[in-house]
Specification:
The N and C termini lie far apart (67 Å). The strands form 2 sheets. The chain has a 31-stranded mixed β-sheet that branches. The chain has no helices and 33 strands.
């Protein structure tokens, strides 16, 4: 059978810290304006959750341990400071708002889809599975109609760290904002594929494996972004480094094909390299160490249009911003 929380009703689970509640079978249905609150102890979902109301974890652990499709819509998900959410198996899709001051964990065999405004400002976020910033807007399970898919806007705030050791996917119209004051975030595993926006406004973001493939906008207007991956990165959309932003290429090659605006600093280490396509409108500065930067220039020193001959020219590249 299944557990049903009707509209306007609430279910509160508050047990001893060592106690574990299990919701199995056909799982839990939470109707519109209904609420599930986990106030203490732990709750393990061995069946699916379908929520049109609000899921509130004020304290304790909620675990998704079944290979099911879990859906949180409606009033979304709220996690307080001492709350933990673990998705060990299955797929959790969220199209309601997310406010988390707690800790969220996505396991190796799990997927998280976020199609809403989500703010993480607490103990952090750690994923070894797939995180996609899009989710279906209805219960049909069909992805064939574009209007049935919602995109996510995720903010990593306060001193929170975001750690993705699986795969991060950011579709068009979706975005992730790193606005942490001093938090350190990591992107590893299979890296990130983005057609949306990646914005770094504070803290530091380290790409340690997998690389970045960005067809959308990548902007670093505050804080720091580190490319430290053996896998190369390809930036085919606009790249912006603001006056207060810093980019470090410590390992691998970053291929830049889109428009570039650099007001801050870009540092290229001894194991890193930048490759600037003609389409960027930017050339490597001569002040940077030889063989750390590669660009396409014409023999007269200016960028060519499509009808002119260009040669692949290597200039210096390292410790200062582009002039």
């Amino acid at each position: 059978g299944h557990l049903n929380v009707s509209s306007g009703s609430s279910l509160k689970i508050e047990s001893l810290e060592s106690a574990r509640s299990i919701i199995g079978g056909d799982g839990l249905v939470l109707e519109s304006a209904g609420e599930l609150e986990v106030a203490a102890g732990s709750v393990s979902f061995q069946g699916p959750i379908r929520s049109e109301g609000r899921v509130h974890i004020s304290q304790g652990l909620v675990e998704f341990g079944s290979d099911d499709q879990h859906v949180i819509r409606g009033d979304g998900l709220m996690m307080d400071e001492n709350a933990v959410l673990e998705v060990q198996l299955g797929e959790l899709s969220i199209t309601g708002p997310v406010e988390s001051s707690g800790f969220m964990y996505i396991g190796f065999a799990a997927t998280l889809n976020v199609g809403s405004l989500a703010t993480f400002s607490g103990s952090g976020f750690e994923s070894y599975g797939v995180v996609s910033l899009s989710a279906e807007s209805d219960a049909s399970g069909s992805r064939r109609l574009q209007e049935q898919v919602l995109t996510g806007v995720v903010e990593i705030a306060a001193n929170t760290s975001f750690e993705s050791y699986g795969h991060l996917a950011i579709p068009a119209d979706a975005s992730i904002l790193f606005s942490s004051n001093s938090g350190t975030s990591f992107i590893a595993g299979e890296g990130v594929d983005s057609s949306g926006d990646i914005r770094v406004e504070g803290g530091s973001v380290h790409v340690t494996s997998g690389g970045v493939r960005s067809a959308g906008t990548l902007s670093v207007t505050g804080g720091s972004l580190y490319f430290d991956s053996d896998a190369n990165s390809a930036l085919t959309g606009p790249t912006i480094i603001g006056a207060n932003g810093s980019v470090f290429v410590l390992n691998g090659t970053v291929y830049v094909h889109g428009e570039v605006e650099i007001l801050g600093t870009m540092t290229v280490g001894s194991s890193g390299k930048i490759a600037l396509a003609e389409s960027t409108g930017v050339v490597c500065p001569e002040t940077l160490a030889r063989e750390r930067c590669e660009d396409w220039v014409c023999e007269d020193g200016f960028h060519a249009d499509n009808s002119s001959a260009c040669v692949n020219h290597i200039l210096g590249c390292t410790n200062s911003g582009f002039d």
